[in-house]
Structure formats: C-alpha cells, structure tokens
Amino acid sequence: MQWTEKYRPFHLDDVAGNQDIIGELKKYVKLTVYDLPNLLFYGDPGLGKTSSAYSFCYDGKHDFEHINSAQLNGKDDMDKFVHILGSVGAGMSNFEITEDKDDEHTTEGMILIFDKAEMLTKQAQNVLEKALESRTDAKVIFIANDISKFTEPMLTRFTAFEFEPLKDEEIEMLLIKIAKKENLQVPDRTMRKIIEDAKGIPRSAVTALQKYWIITKH
Q: What are the residue ranges spanned by the domains of the chain?
C-alpha cells in the first residue's frame, strides 16, 4: 500500500503544513452546508489539498461526493452531474471513503469535491455556475493546480485558499511521525536528503521515505 494513502490525514488536526489555512477551515467546520461558502484549494500538486478537503468533510460530518473533473466534460457526464445535484437533500449519501466510519454524517446537504477542477471546460463551468445559483444545500470544493483556466464569474463564487510548500521542519516532523509508526530508523544524512529533494512537497517526501524503507527492509 502506498504510504501517501496509508498516512493520508482524515482530520484537520492531522494535516501537515499550511496551518494558517487549516485554522480558517476549522472555523468553517462549525457551519452547516447551507451557510458554507464554496471553497477553492489551489497550489502545486502534492501539498495536501485533497486531504484537507476530505478532512474538512470528516470534521464537519458532511456527506460528500468526490468527482474527477477530467471525466465530467461530455454531455452525458454533465447530465449525470445535474442528476447528482438534483438528488441532494433527498437522503442521498455518496460517502466514498471507507476509513474511519465511526463518525455519523449528516444527510442535510452535500459537499461536492471537484478534483483537477481546472480541467472543467467552460461549458461545464457554466452548467455548474447555474446549478449553484439555485441550490443552497449543495456546496463545492474545487481542487486545482492552476486557477487561470476558471472563468471570472466562477471564481467570484469561491473563497480561495492558496496552499504553499511546507517548511523543512514541517516535512521533517511528518517523516519522523511516519518512520516511528513503521519502526524505521533513518540516518540524519538520509533524512536531510529526503527533505531537500522534496522541496516542500509532502507527497514527494513520504514517497521517498517509503522507497528508503523498501530498500532497507527488502
């Protein structure tokens, strides 16, 4: 199992780095779906944007649907999306994550997480924009690397958060935490090399740590 999945955080308290954003999200967690703004998480790949979105939904006990935007550009796909929106509020639960199911989630409203949201065509964005105008029980979280491809009207409907690379000490804390759970001893020189090569990207750092584990254990 990939360690990036094995150690994916499911609560905001467990998200590494970008603590200014996490602090703001903790305030939003207390709101109902009806009162939430639509959210836009953008920044380089591997910074924890999707994990933060999942964690936000877990902590807020919100049902959510994860949507791959790259597959939502044809007419049939857009019809399916409109059907999803129309089902919100009718007791629909599309909770896709299987871990940590002890918490109960609400059936009042839903959050739609659009991964790779910058791949939505203008047509898809227009359909989504019109749908959001008429619904208060469905809110959207866009996950994107590049926001330049969004239409201006679409961007005005979102509260945006820019995720930035982690500090070296934040990467180190994350790696030490994982190494401890795996009973893995990492020489200081190797740890520094992993941190340096990661360039602030936690996904890269965790992947490199697992590679080192494979080499040393096998």
A: 3-162, 168-217
d(CA 159, CA 41): 9
For the beta sheet containing 110-115, the strands, ordered from the edge strand earlier in sequence to the opposite edge, are: 64-68, 110-115, 138-144, 38-42, 158-162
Q: Please name the fold of domain 3-162.
A: Rossmann fold (3.40.50)
Q: How far apart are CA 190 and CA 194, in angstroms?
A: 6
Q: pLDDT 10s digit of each residue in the chain, 218 long?
A: 999 999 999 999 999 999 999 999 999 998 988 899 999 999 999 999 999 999 999 999 998 988 888 776 555 555 666 665 555 444 333 333 333 444 454 446 789 999 999 998 888 888 788 777 777 778 999 999 999 999 898 899 999 999 999 999 999 999 999 999 999 999 999 999 999 999 999 999 999 999 999 999 86
Residues in the chain: 218
Q: Mention every residue, 6+ apart, whose C-beta is less than 8 A from residue 109.
A: 32, 33, 34, 62, 63, 88, 89, 137, 138, 139
Backbone angles phi, psi at 67, to 5 degrees: -125, 130
